[in-house]
């Protein structure tokens, strides 16, 4: 910590602010939750409609349902 203080004392106020901003960014980055892997449990969810619709029609229909 002493080494950081000595280096900070040598920097201009603008550069000190940049160091502070970067340190805050690192602290926030560490505290953010990790991203979860994508799930594909929805795959095949429209299979029951494949006899009545083409894939393009299903895509459009699913967008309509999603908007409701």
Task: Please explain how this structure is put together.
With 68 residues, this protein is mostly helical. The chain has a domain at 2-31. The chain is 60% helix and 0% strand. The longest helix has 19 residues, at 13-31. The chain is rod-shaped. The model has no long low-confidence stretch (mean pLDDT 86).
Report the structural category: mainly alpha
What is the end-to-end distance?
A: 56 Å
Structure summary, number of beta strands: 0
Mean pLDDT over all positions: 86
The backbone outline, from C-alpha atoms, is rod-shaped
Biggest sheet record: none
Q: What's the gyration radius in Å?
A: 26 Å
Helix content: 55-70%
> What order do the SSEs take from the amino end to the carboxyl end, as H and E?
HHH
Count of alpha/pi helices: 3
The amount of beta strand, in percent, is under 5%
Low-confidence stretches: none
């Amino acid at each position: 910590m002493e080494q950081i203080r000595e280096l900070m004392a040598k920097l201009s106020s603008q550069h000190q602010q940049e160091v502070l901003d970067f340190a805050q960014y690192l602290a926030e980055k560490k505290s953010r939750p990790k991203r979860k892997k994508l799930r594909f449990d929805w795959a095949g969810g429209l299979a029951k409609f494949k006899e009545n619709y083409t894939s393009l029609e299903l895509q459009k229909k699913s967008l309509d349902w999603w908007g409701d």
